[in-house]
Amino acid sequence: MPLPPRASLQAVGLAWLGGFLAIAVLAVFSDMYAAALLLGSFGASCVLVFGYPEVPFSQPRNVLFGHLISSATGLAFMALTGPHWWTVAGAVGTAIALMMLTRTVHPPAGSNPVIIFLAQPGWGFLLFPTLAGACLLIAVALLYNNVTRASRYPKYW
To answer: Is the full-model pTM beyond 0.90?
Structure first.
């Protein structure tokens, strides 16, 4: 099978700038309000939201609920069973299944239970950085993608 076609330089530049702006907004707001808004998986979310905004994985519903479901699943598994190898494995598998069942698959969110397993945060992690950060990321994507592209973002809610 041949490689997919190379993205145009314009598409690459737009994706780069979108990712830069989104993470910059999250980092600046984190500093300004002394609130955790950055999550490692948000970098991967930027790849999808700014590089491939038309695909289902990049739509706001998938970004928001994918991150929330995955973080909630990781936190629940951690609270119920503790930090064991099978806890993180079960949380990732369950998060995948729940995202698929709810039609909110967002691949970067699949790493949230692993992040939770490594950091062992409290339930506040669901609000900061997960919910607040995902909402800010979506807000930047809505503004940026609709200003810089001919097609509308999102394709659906």
So the answer is: yes
